Amino acid sequence: MKILVPTKRVPDPDQPIHLNADKTATDLDGIPCIINPFDAIALEEALRIREEERSPAGSDIEIVAVSIGPQACEKEIRIALAMGADRAVHVITDAYIDSWVASNLLKAVADQEQPGLILMGKQAIDADNNQAGQFLANHLNWPQATFASEISFEGDRVKVARETDAGIENVSMALPAVITTDLRLNEPRYASLPAIMKAKRRPVDTHTPADLGVDIEPKVEIISMETLSAKRNCVRVSNVDELIVKLKEAGAL
Fold this sequence. Notes:
Helices cover about 30% and strands about 25% of the residues. With about 250 residues, the chain is of the alpha/beta class. Helix 2 (about 75-85) crosses helix 5 and helix 3 (about 100-115) crosses helix 4. It has helices at about 35-50, 75-85, 100-115, 130-140, 195-200, 210, 240-250, and strands at about 1-5, 10, 35, 60-70, 85-90, 115-120, 145-155, 155-165, 165-175, 175-180, 205. The N and C termini lie far apart (about 55 Å).
């Protein structure tokens, strides 16, 4: 079985974020980037499925990481290889890619790779759209399970425990399928330095959107963005009545 794992490049959330000059995107100049944490969880789960021989394929699983973005994405792609992915695919583009376009590009890669399972983060931490996985499942006409907190296999079906506002929902799906991962599924491993050095010499399959026949005209236009202020005006109150007055003054009540 082949598992396809999209691994998006996102800004390191521990770094200060600034907007570009026209305030339509994050200025990544000089900002360290990482694999989207939810995608790293998906990659870790694919590795554990293989290592623990959880699926009917046992250890006979090929894990393919795929990333969409500029040439700079190669650094995160090689981290995915160092973590344990067998191969990597890079769709190279400098264009703005919204969730719809990303799902179309991933569908084109899936058509080429023919995976039995696509594991991906429930959302990317740069845009927090939570859309690409659902769009992708629709394009492929595959079953989907979002917000996975546990994944197991039963014959040729995959069982997923989903985190919902009402609690855990257990679903069973036929393969192939799309699963998006939530925070509590696992804790991703760190790539070792020797593995990172070895990954630098491994080939990466590259495509352009034109190679894949995908129109990258976005459905969403970002008109403007603004950063939130982290400053707080703290006031100590002496009793509940004073607290209520302050909350009403602040418009919170």
